[in-house]
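Table S5 (text form). Sequence records supplied for joint modeling of the two-component complex.
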Amino acid sequence: MGRDEHEHKAKLAETIRGDLVTRRTFLKGTAILGAAVAAGRAGLLAPREVLAQQKVKRGGQIRVAWVDTVDTLDPHFTSSLGAIKVHDNVYNGILRVDYDGKRVSFVPDLAEKWEMPDPVTHVLTLRKGVKFHNGDDFTAEDIKWNQERLKDPQVKSPHGWKLAYLDKVEILDKHKVKVIFTKPYQFLPVAWTGSTGRAGTIVNRKAVEKQGRAYGRNPVGTGPFKLVEWVENDRIVLERNPQYWEKGADGKPLPYLDKVTILLIREESTAVGALLAGEVDGMDLVPFQFLPLLEKNPAVNVVGGVEGNYTYVGMNNKKPPFDDKPLRQAVAFAIDRKPIIEQAYFGGAIQACSAISPPMTDFYNLDQCSSKRAQYFDLEKAKAFRAQSKYKDEVEVEWMVVGGYTGSGGVGPRMAELVQPMLAKIGIKVRIQLFEQATWHKKRNTGDFQMYDEGWVADLDPDETIYPEWVTGKPWNFVGYTNPEFDKLVGDAQFEADVKKRKALYDKADLVLALDAPCAFIAHFKVFKALSKKVQGFKYIPADSMRFHAIWRA
Amino acid sequence: MLQYAGQRLVHTLILLWLISVFVFVLMKMAPGDPVMIMLGSDYNPESYALLKHELGLDRSVLVQYLIWVWRFVQGDWGYSYISGEYVSKMLLQDALPVTLYLSLGSLMFALIIAIPSGILAALKRNTWVDYAGMGLAIFFNSFPSFYLGIVLIWVFGVTLGWFPTMGYHPPAEDLTKGIYHLILPSFTLGAWYAGLIARITRSSLVDVLNENYIKVAKAKGVQGRALVYKHAMRNVLIPVVTIVGLQLGGMLRGAVMTEVVFALPGIGRLVTIAVLNREYHLVQATVMVIAIMFILVNLSVDVLYRYLNPRVREL
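The corresponding structure-token record, covering 869 residues in total, follows.
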């Protein structure tokens, strides 16, 4: 065995949690190490976990307020974070995201062991004794059916692209399956996680075939909770799955709770009021403006950290005036990120100088901003760029904002108001226009805008956060940026198995992106959840997650 | 009489048809569509085109409308694009009862507070009772219900803890719990209404008390309660009933705000979310139901009016 492989084995052994895997798996290439957080970075993520102070107590129920929408509980068709947080409790994935306060890792969930005989072949040994909520046994057939469902063009799943390089799935025996790809796709570990990845979430075939379109309202998974009631726009009620396979600290099956009621409140101040009055035990998302109020409250714990996201000010590269590169560069250097973080995010964010965010730790550069190699605030530099622009006179532009969580984690309008005077200093007059969701989406998707802002949330691998957003012609490249050098760099990085080489490619691509300035990178924002102090044992994971698996009510 | 009823029915149907066309066209003219919303950040042109076709949204507006009408009159009100749930169930079974209870609660609350206040203010007119009462009435009539709701939640729900801050429980299942949860929302929605009714009642009673037949009754020796309730009330109520009926539309507007603030799963909240998500079927059906409710209310007001005012009965 070569030295590299020894190193990989050792690194892997550190990363993968021992208590969930009976035997250590080894991996050629380092795809699974995609996001290990070095100890020195703990400060950045700075999670405030709820530490267990009392012994585990079984039984009881909790009520939580959900502020974001839940569109469907069919994970292969959802794009809403509110839904993903529910999936995490109703389903399992092939893998799941784990976080121990220092490292983010992708650990086996339904797959007990993951072997890679060669860079494109994956052999999964599955957990035995797992049952779906309807009593069906979980077997290799389910992996095969789920992966094929995603790829099926008739099914039209919006996540099908994650398995574009899937060649075939072979069943080796009841609990062993071989998955073969055409190329060594590095994004795979994230895609195979059960919550954010969605492409690895395992749904029950019988239920889908029987219910058809109604399956999204009647999910059947293998998770610790099963859905018993969904009253439209009112509540989702989950009850304990007594056959769940994972064991708790007391040796008996999880979960500890009997019931979780998710109230679909949506109106933020109402949810906060309910939490403070003690009518709900938690909130899945704390809007930034309520942070100071909740952090002060002695009955409530606020947990959160920087997650896989970045906010940017997008400029339409295809239309005047931002078809002019120096003008865009001027904008990128004219924006002072500090007041935005303090006033728009109420301190709940850090500056972003790249599309790659802290939880993607093997690829995130701690000195990305301090090194000043990318974009940063420098008014003189901005003015110099401005002078090079072909638009010499004052330019008038329209900045479209949207309210709600869509708008840069909820702060779009506030941010636009802060940036407006900054851009006035370099001869750009900004007119802020507020649109509602549907109109804003349409304008963004069809390129019918000059300037807009977005808080882009991505899965925890650099590929998904940089490739479909900035490569020429890709569906999420709303600003119409194009640079063949950049395209090649991130294209190669998609299949580069060596982490160091892959990171070098992204570092280079990052600089190209920053200096071309198709957008101005603003911040990586923190995502907060609030829980009553009566709720114990909650583990924060920086990935759109609110797991009820191992929490109990004191 | 039958001819009259027949005429009204025809007028009603034509009105409903016009409303349906108007709303349909208006919704289609709004930029954006449900497909884009559903795809959200997973948008790409291929998925968009496929889904649009699957939902039948790439056909001409006229064809879409005709298909909708044909199905609607047969009872097929379509389904929600996002949830897949049947519109008729979402609307009639789940949401309508909530709004009806809320409206009923608000109306009762408003009438119980407003009419006695108005009467008292009229009887003690130009005293501090009158000024205080009518001052409060104007205050609540102008206070925006959205903000009032939030203030009530924070004062009575969070700080004092006297009432629940949100949520709906069907009174049919648990009367006490149901009513308890409807108290703050009913106050919020009813307050505006109460202010209006109190002022109308007061001015109406003041007018009536100046009428000749009241003077005759006084001369005959009738006084106090009998004077007000037996002789004056019916005539006082005529303008009140008229205004109450006309303003019922305002109640619905307020219901939207109140339902959002208190997280009540009623029609107001349903249609708001539906419009923002461009759920065409849901919006159409909701508007039709609301229009029908309006028409029924107007009918009831007319009937009540005829009962109160015998002179109208010959028509």
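Note: The CA atoms of residues 61 and 67 of chain B lie 10 Å apart.
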